[in-house]
Design a protein that fits this description.
Radius of gyration of chain A: 29 Å
Number of domains of chain A: 2
Structural class of chain A: alpha+beta
Strand content of chain B: 5-15%
Helix content of chain B: 40-55%
Order of helices and strands of chain A: HEEEHHEEEEEEEEEEEEHEEHEEH
Shape of chain B: elongated
Number of helices of chain B: 23
Structural class of chain B: alpha+beta
Distance between the termini of chain B: 90 Å
Oligomer: heterodimer
Number of strands of chain B: 20
Largest sheet of chain B: 6 strands, antiparallel
Helix content of chain A: 25-40%
Shape of chain A: elongated
Largest interface: A-B, 45 and 64 residues
Radius of gyration of chain B: 37 Å
Strand content of chain A: 25-35%
Strand order of the largest sheet of chain B: 9-12-7-2-18-17
Number of helices of chain A: 6
Chain lengths: ~325, ~700
């Protein structure tokens, strides 16, 4: 057992722990598959026949199969070599939902001048410790000069930063006689929001004492006119038809149906930490949906009143990371 | 079209391999083909129907049979096998069994993801390809097997892909071809240096002798003349130095001593007790040669009379019988090569009494007139030698004709031939002569084999065909031993009928080409065409012979020849060294080739551009490759004011090559060369400054 642990440690040592991982020959392992062993037995039987009957053609045939086996071993290794793996931006999810992890796979060359990129076929991507059968949906082809994205799904159980297990990249290609694999450990900004509580009524205290520079009456509900687009405004407010008419980027303005502005305060809620957090989560979602302006108050943390996607993310992130039990 | 829409849907994208599954039975069918063509018709039908059933299944038309039906199919297969082959275990039977088992295994494959069964079937496909070589080692068959192993490997690779994610056939084919191109040098190294063990360890279960033409161990009137029309090659000969004279070209085969007056057969095979060279004394120079014998399913190893040294990998366990036949321990089932030294002038010192007794027996009651004539000679002539000579001259003086088509002789054929028809082929002459000698009290026997050779002018070797089959006689003369006597040779040329010439001398005559006899062609043109035809024929045979000689006949002998040629000792240590060394060499060669290819594909201009920037950076200039060339120029000029002009020229040229619009390809090449030269000439001079 101890030996197994040591072996595991030794294996994990080779796992890279960076934003991106490039598979080099040191990190790739290769072993014959069960089919490969049967193939070896087949070749031995043919060789035995050749020796017995002194049949030159059978000799050559056996040796050709030996050669094909050896070359396919190299080809299998090369099929993984110089592949770069990176996580693209990972969209946060609310807790019990599986998170989708977009894995960017790109063929790379160490020396851009000397080694041309090659296509890689049938690469299997799998979480290392998963016991499931190999999912053929996670088998990708990566063509030279082309990035591929593969969405991996991972179940979430807890809010906070998601630590991903190592990923096993493997390939049987071309002949299935050998399996080459490598374990990679990638950093990611995967974030799991707390799970929102059920809707409940809550009268938050008004936030009239905010900075208040927000123009009153600007909301997203009723269209009121156009103004020049400013960087940072939501893209779906752009008046694309006007842009197509080459009138420049105009942004639609809306008059908000409400001008509510308030603080969502931790201290106004009851229950344990998780309960309060999931309640706050619900309140933030509702507020954003209604077009309210809101701020968040957590013990030691205060997020000023504002609105919009990034504000919502800001608040939810604060909730997700608040006193994470680790 | 609308009956089976699914069928047409699956058939259309043949340029992409997304339906490998349904290709499986087709590939298997092709692989089985050489076997199916020789297997009994019921077995062939059985296999084909199972393959057809499976391919219908792959198109989604019918489901796979259940366990019960599969069990019944196995029972049916066993029944068919026993019905056609009996309980005898033979090579053909085992091949049929294997093919049937593979086809039945197909029915257990449920879908594309059933890796275990699919791979097993494909691997057994390789095995089937191998078994074809046990029967024939033809070049075309080798090509067939090679192409099929490519296809099998393609299938293997296709099953390692996501089923929906089809790889275009062309791309996969290129990939597999590359794999094979790399595998071939490895195979060649292994082939050349893998230690060979002489002799088979165990032999194939034997097949019936059907389907081969050639000499048999029985002779009766008409049995040899049957062969005279056959163009088939009995064996090919490479003489190492001298070519013996035509009167000594007797290739010894079966020796026939026992007879009932009609049928001649061999004595019981008794191995010769004494060493062969004690019995044969040689007088004339040795002939060294190599024979490449086509499989004839008997044990005879044909040699020029008389062999004194025999050597060969595939013929281990050969021996001489008491009547001096050279026999292999097992039947010759595949192409066999052996190296012989023969003495064309020879005599025997001793012979066992038993042999002589057997060679004296005249079958009681048969051929009475022949017996009478022999007795008459015995009484009138004193000397054994005189009787033999008289017997030979008898054929010359009486009106005997040599013909390929003698009349059928069933009763006392010797009497009929000698006194009634007087027209016969060599077996008539030989058997009658031997009977005459025996009647006269002289031990005699019939020897069959081949006589003569045909030169292949293209390849400089000799061919002996079945039409060269011949029968002659041996008589025992006290003090001199066995003496070869060929009564056929006594017939004067004018009494040899035309048909003999037609077969032996003009076998490939123009008229036999089945070409329309064009009247417009002159005789000269016809001869030229005939010669061309012969040249082509000989070239084809030469390729076959080279193939036989160097690929099929590569054995310990040739291996040590190769090692000696390389200046190495032929032993297993050398072989292992060469094996490892050869493989390392192959791997290094691959690396070098790929490096060279990369180097060839380098963008030279860009490469020298990076070199130039590296040179600039040696004086901590810290320029990045991604910087704009103009910016680099500016910074470099500021840094190296004394080299301003050189730098300006280089960068300007680079910009011109890369970014300017070009219509003249030659000009840009010239400019590129100039650019490379300039970069090379640019020296980093300020190192000295730093040092100072």
């Amino acid at each position: 057992m101890n030996l197994l642990k040591q072996l595991k440690n030794w294996l994990l040592k080779r796992v890279s722990d960076q934003d991106s991982a490039i598979l080099d020959s040191k990190s790739i392992y290769i072993l014959p598959t069960r089919e490969g062993l049967i193939y070896a037995i087949l070749v031995l039987v043919i060789l035995a026949a050749a020796i017995n009957f002194n049949n030159s053609l059978v000799f050559f045939f056996a040796f050709l199969l030996v050669g094909v086996g050896l070359v396919s071993m190299r080809a299998t290794q090369q099929n993984l070599l110089n592949l770069q793996f990176t996580f693209a931006h990972i969209k946060p999810v609310f807790c019990p939902h599986p998170i989708s992890l977009p894995l960017l796979i790109e063929p790379l060359s160490k020396h851009p001048l000397l080694s041309p990129k090659i296509s890689h076929y049938s690469i299997d991507v799998q979480f290392s410790h998963s016991t499931d059968e190999l999912d053929l949906a996670n088998r990708v082809d990566i063509y030279c000069n082309d990035k591929s994205t593969l969405a991996l799904f991972y179940a979430t159980h807890q809010r906070g930063r998601l630590t991903l297990p190592s990923i096993t990249i493997s390939s049987l290609y071309p002949l299935g006689l050998f399996r080459a694999w490598a374990n990679i450990q990638l950093n990611s900004d995967a974030l799991v929001y707390p799970s929102p509580a059920r809707s409940f009524t809550h009268q938050p205290q008004s936030g009239s004492d905010s900075e208040g520079q927000g123009e009153q009456g600007r909301g997203f509900d009723d269209f009121s006119g156009f103004k020049n687009y400013q960087v940072g405004e939501p893209l779906n407010h752009i008046h694309w038809k006007a842009y197509a008419r080459e009138q420049g980027l105009l942004s639609k303005t809306f008059s908000g149906a409400n001008d509510h502005e308030y603080w969502l305060n931790w201290h106004e809620l009851q229950g344990d930490i998780e309960h309060r957090i999931s309640q706050l989560c619900r309140l933030i979602l509702d507020a954003e949906l209604q077009g309210d302006r809101y701020g968040l108050i957590l013990p030691n943390i205060q997020i000023n009143i504002s609105q919009g996607d990034s504000h919502q993310h800001h608040c939810l992130k604060a909730l997700a990371l608040y006193q994470v039990a680790s | 079209m609308s009956f089976f829409p699914s069928l047409f849907k699956t058939l259309t994208p043949l340029n992409t391999l997304n339906n490998v599954y349904s290709l499986l039975p087709i590939v298997l069918f092709i692989i089985f083909l050489p076997h199916l063509m020789t297997a009994p018709i019921v077995i062939t039908l059985y296999i084909i129907s199972i393959l057809a059933y499976f391919s219908l299944h792959t198109f989604g038309i019918i489901p796979l049979p259940g366990k019960m039906i599969r069990f019944l199919l196995i029972i049916l297969a066993l029944f068919l096998l026993v019905m056609t082959y009996g309980f005898l275990f033979s090579q053909k039977m085992s091949l049929s069994l294997l093919a049937i088992m593979i086809s039945l295994k197909l029915l257990e494959i449920h879908n594309e993801q059933d890796r275990r069964n699919i791979f097993l079937v494909l691997f057994l496909g390789y095995f089937i390809l191998m078994t074809h070589f046990l029967r024939s080692q033809d070049i075309l068959l080798a090509l067939f097997a090679f192409v099929n192993s490519l296809i099998l490997t393609l299938m293997l690779s296709a099953f390692n892909r996501k089923p929906q994610n089809a790889l275009p056939v062309k791309d996969s084919m290129i990939l597999i071809l590359r794999l094979f191109i790399k595998a071939i040098p490895i195979a060649i190294v292994l082939f050349l240096f893998f230690p060979r063990v002489p002799g088979p360890l165990w032999s194939l279960p034997e097949d019936g002798q059907a389907g081969t033409t050639g000499l048999s161990d029985k002779m009766y009137p008409g049995s040899v003349s049957n062969l005279s029309d056959s163009d088939e090659i009995a064996f090919r000969v490479d003489f190492h130095d001298t070519i013996p004279t035509s009167d000594t070209l007797y290739w010894r085969g079966p020796v026939l001593t026992q007879t009932d007056g009609f049928l001649w057969s061999q004595n019981e095979e008794k191995p010769l007790q004494k060493p062969f060279n004690k019995i044969i004394k040689n007088t004339q120079e040795a002939v060294r040669y190599t024979i490449t014998l086509e499989p004839h399913r008997h044990k005879w190893l044909f040699t020029l009379e008389m062999p004194i040294k025999v050597q060969g990998d595939t013929i281990k366990g050969f021996y001489f019988t008491q009547d001096l036949q050279l026999l292999n321990q097992t039947r010759i089932q595949q192409l066999t090569q052996y190296h012989i030294t023969s003495m064309t002038g020879y005599f025997f010192s001793k012979m066992s009494m038993n042999e002589l007794l057997l060679a004296r027996q005249f079958p009681m009651g048969s051929n009475p007139r022949t017996y009478e004539l022999g007795q008459q000679w015995k009484n009138t002539l004193i000397d054994t030698k005189q009787i033999v000579l008289h017997g030979l001259h008898y054929f010359k003086e009486k009106p005997f004709y040599y013909t390929k088509q003698p009349s059928v002789m069933l009763n006392n054929p010797s009497d009929q031939f000698l006194f009634d028809t007087q027209r016969g082929f060599c077996e008539h002459y030989a058997s009658s002569f031997v009977l005459l000698m025996r009647a006269a009290g002289i031990p005699a026997r019939v020897v069959t084999g081949y006589q003569g050779i045909e030169k292949n002018t293209v390849g400089d070797y000799y061919i002996v065909r079945q039409s060269n089959a011949h029968a002659w006689a041996e008589v025992w003369i006290a003090g001199e031993g066995w003496l070869r006597v060929d009564p056929t040779g006594m017939i004067p040329p004018e009494r040899i009928e035309d048909d003999i010439f037609q077969t032996n001398l003009d076998r490939l005559s123009f008229s036999s080409l089945n070409l329309p006899d064009l009247p417009s062609l002159s005789a000269q043109q016809k001869t030229a065409m005939y010669e061309l035809y012969q040249q082509i024929n000989q070239s084809i045979d030469m390729i076959k012979h080279t193939w036989n000689n160097w690929i099929l006949g590569y054995d310990t002998n040739k291996q040590s020849l190769l090692l000696n040629f390389m200046g190495l000792k032929a032993n297993w240590q050398t072989l292992i060294f060469l094996l490892i060394g050869g493989l390392v060499f192959v791997i290094l060669a691959f690396q070098l080739i790929s490096l060279y290819q990369r180097y060839k594909n380098i963008d030279k201009v860009y490469y020298y551009y990076t070199k130039f920037i590296h040179k600039l950076n040696q004086a901590d200039l810290n320029i990045r490759l991604s910087d704009a060339p103009e910016a680099i120029k500016q910074r470099a000029c500021e840094h190296f004011p004394q080299k301003k002009i050189a730098i300006q020229i280089i960068i300007d040229h680079y910009i011109k090559i890369r970014y300017a619009h070009h219509s003249d390809n030659q000009a840009i090449q010239k400019l590129s060369q100039q650019f490379i030269k300039e970069v090379k000439q640019y020296k980093v001079s300020n190192k000295k400054k730093v040092l100072l």
